[in-house]
């Protein structure tokens, strides 16, 4: 099954890419929920968290490593950020290709965004 993310990886659909390596791609979300809202995806298609296998489990660690690398590169690592991966419809997943949401640039409380204080990014 081809998703919008597969089409971004193959460059059939444009995206504002901020990071790429052999295993992953990070780009700006077109519907940002924070001043910084990036999506970090594996180039290998894995539909949901439930589809991660022993053979491809390292990719999830790689995605988190990319998130930390981007946070340091764009200088919001020290202030903090949120990384979220949704699973299936009730979990809020809308594209069936695993991906991390990297959110930063505001103070995040619980429930999410309860204590929003916009920051400069």
UniProtKB/TrEMBL annotation:
<dbReference type="InterPro" id="IPR019808">
    <property type="entry name" value="Histidine_triad_CS"/>
</dbReference>
<dbReference type="InterPro" id="IPR011146">
    <property type="entry name" value="HIT-like"/>
</dbReference>
<dbReference type="Pfam" id="PF01230">
    <property type="entry name" value="HIT"/>
</dbReference>
<dbReference type="InterPro" id="IPR001310">
    <property type="entry name" value="Histidine_triad_HIT"/>
</dbReference>
<feature type="active site" description="Tele-AMP-histidine intermediate">
    <location>
        <position position="99"/>
    </location>
</feature>
<feature type="short sequence motif" description="Histidine triad motif">
    <location>
        <begin position="97"/>
        <end position="101"/>
    </location>
</feature>
<dbReference type="InterPro" id="IPR036265">
    <property type="entry name" value="HIT-like_sf"/>
</dbReference>
<dbReference type="GO" id="GO:0003824">
    <property type="term" value="F:catalytic activity"/>
</dbReference>
<feature type="domain" description="HIT">
    <location>
        <begin position="4"/>
        <end position="113"/>
    </location>
</feature>
<protein>
    <submittedName>
        <fullName>Histidine triad (HIT) family protein</fullName>
    </submittedName>
</protein>
């Amino acid at each position: 099954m081809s998703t919008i993310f597969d089409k971004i990886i193959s460059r059939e659909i444009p995206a504002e890419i901020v990071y790429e390596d052999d295993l992953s791609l990070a780009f700006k979300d077109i519907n940002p929920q924070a001043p910084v809202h990036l999506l970090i995806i594996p180039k290998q298609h894995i539909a949901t968290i439930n589809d991660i296998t022993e053979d491809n489990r390292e990719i999830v660690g790689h995605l988190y490593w990319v998130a930390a690398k981007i946070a340091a590169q764009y200088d919001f690592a020290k202030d903090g950020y949120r990384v979220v991966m949704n699973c299936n419809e009730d979990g809020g997943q809308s594209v069936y290709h695993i991906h991390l949401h990297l959110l930063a640039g505001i103070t995040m409380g619980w429930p999410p965004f309860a204590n929003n204080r916009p920051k400069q990014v």
